[in-house]
Write a structure and sequence with these properties.
The protein is an all-alpha fold. It contains five helices and no strands.
């Protein structure tokens, strides 16, 4: 299903996070010498975009979704994901992730995004009126205005190689 224009800003941010996940997957297993730079990049991505994205979903998208009984279990699942992901982003911020945890973060974040895109957004587009979707879109535009990450470039390893 074509994404409704009012959800596109969230979908663009999902694409940025998925690109990071793909890069982590391709680099895995991440050598111990590279863990610090990966965690620094993850922390930057979280502070610049993902944290703002989570709040926008929790304050605007999830409450709208809760108006539809069938979506309540999915919203609870997504909120549980946010808790787990925030914990791992905090651990990355303190440079505490192992290579295995870094890989797990990428896998869980990717699965979370796909749940939102394929299940939540698709169903919201079917259930919501055009007017309600536009109202949500205006709220999301305001909530996301301070996000700074567009698309992170690959981290440079010491010595200049990628």
């Amino acid at each position: 299903m074509l994404r409704d224009k009012n959800l596109i800003p969230l979908s663009h941010q999902h694409q940025h996070a998925l690109a990071l996940c793909v890069r982590i997957d391709r680099a895995s297993p991440v050598p111990a010498a590279d863990l610090d730079s990966w965690q620094r990049e993850i922390e930057q991505h979280f502070r610049g975009e993902i944290a703002i994205h989570f709040v926008a979903e929790e304050q605007h998208v999830f409450p709208v979704a809760r108006q539809f009984d069938e979506l309540n279990p999915l919203v609870e699942d997504l909120l549980t994901d946010h808790i787990w992901l925030r914990d791992r982003f905090a651990k990355a911020g303190s440079r505490g992730l192992s290579a295995g945890e870094l890989s797990e973060l990428a896998q869980r974040l990717s699965a979370h995004i796909r749940k939102e895109e394929r299940r939540l957004f698709e169903r919201l587009q079917e259930l919501m009126t055009h007017e309600d979707m536009e109202k949500l879109g205006r709220k999301l535009d305001e909530a996301l205005k301070d996000a700074t990450i567009a698309c992170a470039l690959p981290a440079q390893r010491p010595g200049g190689s990628k």
